[in-house]
Specification:
The chain is α+β, with helices and mostly antiparallel strands. 50% of the residues lie in helices and 18% in strands. Strands 1-2-3-4-7-6-5 form a 7-stranded antiparallel β-sheet, with helices on both faces.
Length: 265
């Protein structure tokens, strides 16, 4: 009989997500997750992030190693040029890193392209949406009842005058918000809203270099997002993959933010 309260290690949870958990532990871990909702939500978020990374970079991982990065070709070139062994060893270490262990850093480096990169910025926002939308007890740092404090705090951290939209007119209640790292490592603001049937939508924003861009849409398997830049702040509204519903939410957010920008100019 499986002990549903048996301790499960973090290493086992990662193996479970990667499909590498030994068969004799699969039943125990599955039962333990069924009895621990918070950890099950965390594992679900890890899986969503892994799926996102595979979707974005899987094709690159399957490509053949370019000739210029192949170790035997590097050896031939360095024998001909007389480079030192120390230099060659450093190059070989770099090649090994790129081929084997650099996937996580590659993803992080790609994410540093900047907030004006539509694909990168919306991917970061959707990752944050999928990570926190499943949280029951701790979806935000500051509750929606402290809207004034939330606005002041996040505006100060981002170095921009932000506005937390009021979406009560479309039956969305502010759950609250939190501070997140942005695509360039700078601060990003994150607001969450919830509808009467439990559906959740988020707004993710950070400073941008471009003063203005038009609305752009990105669709996923179970979530989608609208992106734009207004008054040098990039915004992404994320939610369930229902374009009409998400467009209605985005319109309400966009109109309030645009009015806020008009007041400042």
């Amino acid at each position: 009989m499986v002990d549903r309260n048996s301790p499960v290690t973090e290493e086992e949870l990662h193996a479970y997500v990667d499909g590498e958990l030994p068969a004799d532990r699969l039943e125990a871990v599955t039962a333990w997750l069924a009895a621990n909702a918070d950890q099950a939500a965390l594992v679900a978020a890890w899986r969503a992030q892994a799926d996102s990374i595979r979707a974005r970079y899987g094709a690159v991982a399957g490509e053949p190693v370019p000739e210029r990065l192949q170790l035997d070709q590097a050896l031939k070139r360095d024998r001909a040029s007389g480079r030192s062994w120390a230099a060659l060893a450093s190059a070989a270490a770099l090649i090994a890193f790129v081929i084997g262990g650099g996937a996580g850093w590659f993803a992080r480096g790609a994410a540093a392209a900047g907030p004006n990169d539509f694909d990168t910025f919306t991917a970061e926002a959707l990752d944050a949406y999928r990570l926190y939308v499943v949280e029951v007890r701790h979806p935000v740092e500051v509750p929606g009842s402290e809207r004034a404090h939330l606005t002041q705090w996040l505006s100060k951290r981002l170095g921009a005058e932000l506005r937390v939209p009021d979406l009560q007119s479309i039956n969305l209640k502010l759950v609250g918000g939190r501070l997140l790292p942005g695509p360039t490592g700078a601060a990003a603001a994150f607001y969450m809203y919830e509808g009467p049937s439990g559906e959740r939508f988020t707004i993710y924003c950070a400073k941008a270099e471009a003063p203005q861009t038009a609305l752009r849409f990105k669709d996923g398997d179970s979530s989608a997002a609208f992106y734009w830049v207004d008054d040098k702040v990039a915004y992404v509204v994320s939610g369930p993959s229902n374009r009409d519903q998400l467009e209605n939410v985005t319109k309400s957010v966009y109109e309030q933010i645009d009015k806020s920008g008009a007041k400042k100019s």
